[in-house]
Each structure stands twice: as structure tokens, then as C-alpha cells.
Write a sequence for this structure.
């Protein structure tokens, strides 16, 4: 594989970016003990420090540049792994490229939305508005932002995870088949399951699950590169 060291460095940069995104996710999504969800509002937003959300946005803005390095190399590796005799393989590489490209936009948008709502609620909480009015305002803002939020979220998770699982299952990536589980979709679903336990420490960690899923998927691609011959065809 040509440029093997460069590809590995790019993937490790991407993993660093995912690690920074996990920190940003925790600042944005961790609500702490005795939190109560009411529509789009978390009760502990009222006492959360505003710097947390400001830090989350800034960290995300830096993290996406590192994440881009990893995504770029994963897209490249997916193109190399495709088989022109298998139409689904070709489509998988194309869909993965779309999902990986969308992930950069999605991460920035999702973090901006996820930080704006608690900041807005905190400002409203400091006024003399009634609780019902505050909830109505935040729910309205959330409603207008929800469509692009969930569309981008689904594209970045499904369009990267499913093609990765397909190529792994077909043996076109030099990794064990159980590595199929190392993707954002699996960890996103796992996060929803863990939230059912209703233990605040676990619930807070689930805010980081999608970023963690991207990190372990980059690690899986790193293993693929390490097991690839130095001078194989591209």
C-alpha cells in the first residue's frame, strides 16, 4: 500500500479529533444527577455553567479539522477496497464518501444546536417568565432546528456504518468480521439502551457514544492498514 505511513498518521489524527469530540459531547450533553427531561429541555440546564457550552462549541470547531483527516483516509481506503465486479461494493464506497463528508457539517451543526438550547434556557430562566413560557420558547426553537439535525445525524451514522459493515463482512477490509460492530450505528443504539438504566453517570457518558463509534471505526481502519502489504496494488 502506497503512502501507508501517511494514511496511518491521518487515521490517528482522526482518532484524536474523535477524542476531542467526545469531550465536547460530554460538555454539551451531560446533565448530572437528578435531571428531569421535559420535552426538549433538561431541568439541570438552569444551573449549568454557560462556559461548558461555549467550550463545547470551541472544542468541536477544532476537533472537526482533526476528524477530517481520519475521514479523508477512510474514504480513500473504502475506494481501494471496492470491487468493480460487485455493484453493491462500488455503491458502498460512494455512500461512505457521502456520509463521511456529511459528518463534518453534521458535527458542527449538531453541537451548535445542542449548545444553543441550554444557553437559551439558562438566559430565560434568569428572567421573570413563567416556566410554561420558557418551555414553549425552547421547544419552538428546537422544532425549527430538528429536521436538519436528525437528517444530518442519520446520514452521517447510517451512510458510514452500513457500508463499513458490508465491506468488512465481504472480507474486503483486512480485519476480523466481528469488527463490523465497531461503528457509530452500533454505539448509537447501545447508547439508547444504556439510557434505559437511568443511572446518571452512564446516561452522561452516552452523550459521547457516536463520537466514540467513529473513533473505534477509525481504529478498525488503522488495523486494516497495518495488515496490508507495503507494496500492494492501489
Amino acid at each position: 500500500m502506497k503512502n501507508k505511513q501517511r494514511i496511518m498518521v491521518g487515521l490517528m489524527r482522526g482518532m484524536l479529533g474523535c477524542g476531542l469530540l467526545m469531550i465536547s459531547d460530554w460538555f454539551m450533553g451531560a446533565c448530572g444527577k437528578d435531571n428531569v427531561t421535559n420535552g426538549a429541555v433538561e431541568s439541570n440546564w438552569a444551573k449549568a455553567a454557560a462556559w461548558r457550552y461555549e467550550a463545547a462549541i470551541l472544542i468541536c470547531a477544532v476537533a472537526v479539522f482533526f476528524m477530517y483527516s481520519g475521514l479523508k483516509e477512510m474514504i480513500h481506503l473504502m475506494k481501494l477496497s471496492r470491487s468493480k465486479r460487485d455493484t453493491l461494493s462500488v455503491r458502498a464506497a460512494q455512500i461512505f464518501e457521502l456520509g463521511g463528508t456529511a459528518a463534518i457539517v453534521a458535527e458542527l451543526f449538531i453541537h451548535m444546536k445542542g449548545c444553543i438550547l441550554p444557553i437559551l434556557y439558562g438566559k430565560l430562566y434568569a428572567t421573570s417568565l413563567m416556566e410554561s413560557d420558557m418551555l414553549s420558547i425552547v421547544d419552538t426553537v428546537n422544532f425549527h432546528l430538528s429536521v436538519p439535525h436528525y437528517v444530518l445525524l442519520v446520514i452521517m451514522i447510517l451512510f458510514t456504518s452500513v457500508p463499513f459493515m458490508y465491506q468488512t463482512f465481504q472480507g474486503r477490509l483486512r480485519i476480523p468480521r466481528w469488527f463490523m460492530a465497531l461503528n457509530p450505528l452500533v454505539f448509537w443504539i447501545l447508547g439508547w439502551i444504556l439510557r434505559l438504566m437511568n443511572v446518571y453517570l452512564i446516561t452522561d457518558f452516552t452523550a459521547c457514544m457516536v463520537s466514540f463509534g467513529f473513533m473505534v471505526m477509525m481504529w478498525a481502519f488503522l488495523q486494516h492498514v497495518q495488515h496490508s502489504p507495503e507494496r500492494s496494488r492501489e
Notes: The chain has a mean pLDDT of 89. The longest strand covers residues 37-38.
